[in-house]
Target: Acetylornithine transaminase
Amino acid sequence: MIQQSTPGDWQERYHSALLGVFGSPQLCLDHGYGCIVVDSDGNEYLDLLGGIAVNALGYAHPAWVKAVTHQAETLAHVSNFFTTRPQLDLAEKMLSLAKAPEGSAVFFSNSGTEANEAAIKICLARKNGRIIALDHAFHGRTLGALALTHKAAYRQPFGPSAIDVTFVAPDDHGTLCHELDKGDVSAVFVEPVQGEAGVVPLSREYLRQVRELTVCHDALMVVDEVQCGMGRTGRWFAHQGAHITPDVMTTAKALGGGFPIGATVTFGPHVSGVLTAGQHGTTFGGNALACAVACAVISTIESDDLLAHVRKIGALMSTALQQCHPSITQVRGSGALLGIQFDSDIAGDLVVAARDAGFIVNAANPSTLRLAPPYVLTEAQAQSFVDALPGLIDSVRS
Ligand SMILES: *Cc1c(COP(=O)(O)O)cnc(C)c1O
Model:
């Protein structure tokens, strides 16, 4: 039975019941509407993080609630011995949004890291060689995806990986050429916008170079759009800005707008045909409930023209933020994925100050704030943060 929480006792209950991998939760949240979330003491916050780039439609969006409710009342889970209409609808829709050619396919899972595990298995099954990933890359926490994650502190406690990974500097054509020339590379994994690294977009030129070089060297190009995909940058997928077709794409976070789902898209028969029946699987992945909700998220983004809105609020915020305080040295990213770079390590203190002032933001690293708000953020809400930020910066610097 769930105990009724009294104000303030949640911290103690958390630490006596939950594994300590996330540190201390900042708040105990109770409910939300739109971009506003309310804690268990009744305080309201403007959420500019959206559950880490997940809640594309904000909280309790009517279309999302309706999709969950309707599908739950109909049929939620059936196992992958069977298919369902929502699964077929979502797969076809994903292929069309991804502009995937004939012979492309989708594999559904429950998270970003699982979407990447499927991608890794496809690459290694086709050609068992090294995988190249980028410095500062983040691909997830399960052992395969973790091997491609750059930060040593995340990886090293768990010993050497069975996957042979080489990290190279992003946007460095020479090093990539040099590694691919050795001939043993299975795949190159890139995040078109490196999210956890502090919102660092790769140049379009580099994305095109990765595409050309992997083709020349019989390696696959995998784009990890777990964070930057599903409309977050103002286009359905960030790599589309470079006008390239990857071999594999992974996505998750915003796909279900808060309902867990991940997807791995294989572009064309040369990758879609690699794994055969029995070579990969999942119990929960692609269930009717998750797929119906993802369909509703995509339909709402389309019907409410949210990609155009995301581009508009992104441009508005990035222009205003660049000019709002001298300690801001750069604003990176676009749409609903922005990194605010400061000239010193104040991001951690700013998260606390912002929260006390009613804004939820995140420190992607000690000198960068990350904003990944719901796509339904209004211009007035965006402006309220821009207006408050200079005062917050001054308060943490004094
Ligand atoms: C969040 C993230 C992942 C991992 O997704 P999970 O759902 O947490 O497993 C993988 N790649 C990128 C780029 C991410 O931002």
Residues 111-113, 116, 138-140, 191, 195-196, 224, 226-227, 252-253 surround pyridoxal-5'-phosphate (CB under 6 Å).
